Amino acid sequence: MNELDWPEGYGRRVMAEVDSTNAEGLRLASGLAGPTWIFAKRQLAGRGRRGRAWSDPTGNFAASLVLKPAEAPAQAALRSFVAALALYDALSALAPGADLALKWPNDVLLGVGKLAGILLEGAGAGARMDYLVIGFGVNLSHAPEPGASVIAPISLRAGTGLQVEPEALLNHLAHAYALREAVFADAGFGPIRAAWLKRAARMGQDVTARTMRDEIRGRFDDVDENGNLVLTTPDGRRTISAADVFFENEAG
């Protein structure tokens, strides 16, 4: 399979306009027979983590992948790292030499700016999930106003001078995701975690993690086998399951 072939076993739905590709994925999930990509040329009401709005002007990228995981919810959620790696792979192929890095838990950086975000949503109870929707938003042509973003956004065009069409990114991303998903299915989180850490931003440097309850400063040393952020602080190692991470010059 060359890099532009659509991966076998994955469906594709292309829409001219939608409120949110994740919302559409959630609406369609119960009726889908297998993993399916939902791509919109225009997204009107995109959203990010913790209910934040996600701006998506024409020329940017919005797509979601709907899956029906076989694993327990905690294991299925590790696909956040699978998705981040796949997006890194796709962007690297389309923008060779770009200064890309992965930021825990689910962002792709270009230099010091936020290029892309990933949002996981799902439904299920007990030991199994009914479905999982992985949303991808990439600033290909335009960067929105900073707003409440932890890191100022940047577009691929502004950062590299390259104009990448959203449809081209969809093909590369679908291909890259299928490859990374196969590794996750066959070998588990271990190789995904190792590959993610090699591409992680600010490894070994001090960061600030802000949870809903407190603020923790420490050296970013690891992501553990459950996908948690691991910081070394003056009080010892801290394991953090959910937080916004600020780099030292942004923690202010």
Could you describe the 3D structure shown?
By secondary structure, the protein is of the alpha+beta class. The protein has 2 domains: 188 residues, 2-Layer Sandwich (BirA Bifunctional Protein, domain 2); 42 residues, Roll (SH3 type barrels), CATH 2.30.30. Helix content is 26%, strand content 32%. It contains 6 helices and 14 strands. A 7-stranded mixed beta sheet has the order 1-2-5-9-8-7-6, with helices on both faces. Strands 13-12-11-10-14 form a 5-stranded antiparallel beta sheet, with no helix packed on it. Strands 3-4 form a two-stranded antiparallel sheet. Strand 3 and strand 4 form a beta hairpin. The radius of gyration is 17 Å and the shape is globular. The N and C termini lie far apart (48 Å).
Helix content: 25-40%
Strand order of the largest sheet: 1-2-5-9-8-7-6
Given the C-alpha coordinates, what overall shape results? globular
- Euclidean distance between termini CA atoms: 48 Å
Cα-atom radius of gyration: 17 Å
Q: What fraction of the residues are assigned to beta strands by DSSP? A: 25-35%
Number of structural domains: 2
The succession of helices and strands, N to C, reads: EHEEEEHHEEEEHHHEEEEE
Tell me the name of the CATH class of the largest domain: Alpha Beta
Please name the fourth-level CATH homologous superfamily of the largest domain: Bira Bifunctional Protein, Domain 2
Uncertain segments: none
| Named CATH topology of the largest domain | BirA Bifunctional Protein, domain 2
Mean pLDDT: 91
